[in-house]
Amino acid sequence: MKVAIIGAGAIGVRIGMELAERDVDVEIYDAKYPEYGTTGRSIGVVSVQQRDPRLVSLALESSKLMADLDKRLKQDVGYPVGVMGEAAPHVSIALTPKDREDIARQSNVWRSAGADVKEMSPIEVKDALLPWIDDRAFTSAFVTTNDYKVTAFPYAYGMLMIMRSKGGKVFRSREVTGFETNGSIVKAAVINGSQRVEADAFVIAAGAASPKLISKLGDNPVPVRIALGGGAVTEPYKYAFRPIVTVDRKGYRFTQTLRNEFVMAVYDMGVDNPDMSVEESLRVMERMATVTVKLFPSFTYMNALRQWGAYLDYTADRLPVVGWSSRHENVYYAYGFGNYGFSVGPAMASRAACEIASGSRDPLLDPFRPPRA
């Protein structure tokens, strides 16, 4: 069996690795290069702090898969353990009493799905987890201990190395410009306007570009709305900041990587705005800096070395689209992951690969299948 995957982000690469390990002939095609899109612009957090209990369960599974992969990368390709990531406590900050009420309701969802959750006072947070935080800047915090933080590039390239060791291939600068079909079967993808790539099955995992590709097939994609997110990285400091910090009301996340840089992100800088751009910097940087300095006044003089933007693809129901096309029997969709691709993507990609390779149907993926309104 040969499978052609369109998109070399975290979802496409994970599906490719899992398929290659099932002795499937895998080729991945990306219009730019691996991790060019949202994956490479993420700060890499597997978070169980999701609003839907089904996503919480998948995030718990993803966290375990990340830890397993970290160990495998040492055995298979010589990565030192911990280069890719590590388990970390995740502190969700309530700035106001109203925030506390909202997060308390959400925490019931996390807990009901099996996550470990504890509410902590500002003083407890400062004493136990974040000695740098201003305990006067927030009302309360809810801490989960099932989360995992990932360095995106070692994660993706580690999976590509495993995939290649099993015979898989990845091609850069290969834009899919069309498809050749025969009834309900897609015979080939057309690359860069002329090259034909034949396969037994095709996986569209191209993030925000997926609906456009699906439209080329004459299918009706589950629509997505495009949100602007952004991130920044500082110069390296001695590693001491293990927790992940989130202020959901501000769409803000912050942690320190295992490479010693601090990374921060915002994920709600506007939706479907024709003027927004991943090159936007001042407005994104201002949001990140304002929240960081409010919580951590001593970090005021950190030097940010680089800032970037990202397009996040959200469906109307905020659930990813994963499953076979209802129109073309050998086309599989995996997109609409928004800002939670690292959180639920590993588990969903692993289950998707099993479906593609075996022809089975995983009931846990049923809520995410196309078509949806």
UniProtKB/TrEMBL annotation:
The keyword Signal does not apply. Its EC number is 1.5.3.1. This is Sarcosine oxidase beta subunit. The keyword Secreted does not apply. Keywords: Oxidoreductase. GO terms for cellular component: cytoplasm. One of its GO terms (molecular function) is sarcosine oxidase activity. Residues 2-352 form the FAD dependent oxidoreductase domain.
